[in-house]
Amino acid sequence: TKEGVAEIKHILGKLYEAGVRSLTITMPSIMELVQSTTYDFKIRASCLCQVRNANRALVYKKQGIDKIVVEESVNRDMHTLKRIRKAFGQKVEIIVNQICDKNCMYRLFHYNMISGDACQDTNEVSINYYEHRCVMQQLKTIDNLLKLCWVRPEDIKYYVQMGIQYFKLQGRHTFLKGGDPVKTVKYYFDESFDGNLMDLLSMFGRLTSFKPYVDNKKLD
What we know:
This protein is an alpha/beta fold. Helix content is 44%, strand content 8%. It contains ten helices and five strands; from the N terminus they run H-E-H-E-H-E-H-E-H-H-H-H-E-H-H.
């Protein structure tokens, strides 16, 4: 609606006044709306934009997007990552502590539900439905944990070698459940971690009632 567009532009103005100069955006329509204003925001395409090949990366480059966050499903597909890096340029970012089930059938529906839950009252069943289904898929067999799209601190060097210099840790909400994002960042800077990989991926917070143990050093 015209009123909705006006409200978004008003919010953008408030953000700019506050000193914000970079936005992470999922919807291409909102990207174009931001670009239509006089504000010089830099835009980062969210991982939800599903950039998983060079063609899509090139579309966002031509759109004037400053940085892309690659869809986690290709985190270990080095050939594809190299092509994405070549097509888009230097500002390619990957999420290293991914704990969602790989190629999860619930993924898009989960994020769509979250967008609504953020705006209205919901019950515990609604909030937890997709997250619990995802965890159930992960824990069906032990090998599913190894198939998740995480990147160990020890393996960062392989991505740097191919020209990827930006790495993201997800889970800012984990500190509400005892997590320690700062400690997690330190291990990734050290490029070494001796302990339970699942603790590292969850930023040492207790996200579920399950506690699998994966010895990180045994994965060298």
